[in-house]
């Protein structure tokens, strides 16, 4: 755990303004750690720049960020048993993944739902379809009041999921709904987004260290 906490200390050393968020960053991490330890997943959503951040978060979790994330021997063996030639390539190149889905990227589903149903419920529909009890929904909203993110958060709680918010410093509807809300200390949209990136990078680094830091390179 000491090694995990070093990531937060380094974050605050580099971005002193985030000192006010330290407890919430740690609490968000603990929710994510527990969820992944129980083989659950993360759903992430946002709009505009926050949609790009959602994709960025998923990219850091679904493949190696800093550590090699080697597969365990048992899975490597199963791959080779399935097909010796193809399985050998897979066993050498696949990486461990922390399952995460960005809800902005499903173009056919999103446009179909927005055309046929209530557009603001598109993220909520995906949470309803993808989400299970024990999963986590991460809503990224600079204002904390994006309606489509709020609908998704309410749906997540109804599904038995935990909700993490990533917002600006103002109190918001998302900060009320979320189990943990990281409110970075800025009010201008672009400045909020500039602090969101190091926060979610820190969370991803801590998760990778916890789940893959002790795996030996085989």
Automatic annotation (TrEMBL):
One of its GO terms (biological process) is carbohydrate derivative metabolic process. It comes from the Bacteria. Residues 32-213 form the SIS domain. InterPro entries: GmhA/DiaA, SIS_dom, SIS_dom_sf, SIS_GmhA/DiaA_subfam. GO terms for molecular function: carbohydrate derivative binding. PANTHER family: DNAA INITIATOR-ASSOCIATING PROTEIN DIAA (PTHR30390:SF6), SEDOHEPTULOSE 7-PHOSPHATE ISOMERASE / DNAA INITIATOR-ASSOCIATING FACTOR FOR REPLICATION INITIATION (PTHR30390). This is SIS domain-containing protein. It comes from Holdemanella porci.
């Amino acid at each position: 755990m000491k090694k995990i906490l070093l990531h937060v200390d380094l974050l605050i050393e580099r971005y002193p303004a985030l000192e006010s968020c330290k407890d919430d960053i740690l609490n968000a991490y603990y929710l994510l750690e527990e969820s992944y330890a129980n083989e659950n997943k993360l759903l992430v959503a946002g709009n505009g720049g926050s949609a790009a951040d959602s994709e960025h978060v998923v990219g850091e979790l679904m493949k190696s960020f800093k550590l090699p994330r080697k597969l365990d021997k048992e899975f490597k063996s199963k791959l080779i048993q399935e097909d010796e030639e193809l399985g050998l390539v897979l066993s050498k190149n696949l990486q461990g993944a922390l399952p995460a889905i960005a809800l902005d990227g499903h173009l056919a589903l999103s446009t179909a739902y927005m055309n046929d149903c209530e557009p603001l419920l598109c993220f909520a529909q995906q949470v309803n379809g993808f989400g299970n009890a024990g999963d986590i929904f991460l809503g990224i909203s600079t204002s904390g009041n994006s309606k489509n993110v709020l609908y998704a958060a309410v749906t997540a709680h109804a599904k038995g999921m935990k909700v993490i918010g990533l917002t600006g410093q103002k109190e918001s509807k998302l900060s009320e709904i979320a189990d943990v809300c990281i409110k970075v200390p800025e009010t201008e949209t672009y400045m909020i987004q500039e602090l969101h990136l190091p926060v979610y990078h820190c969370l991803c680094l801590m998760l990778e260290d916890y789940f893959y830091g002790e795996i030996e390179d085989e």
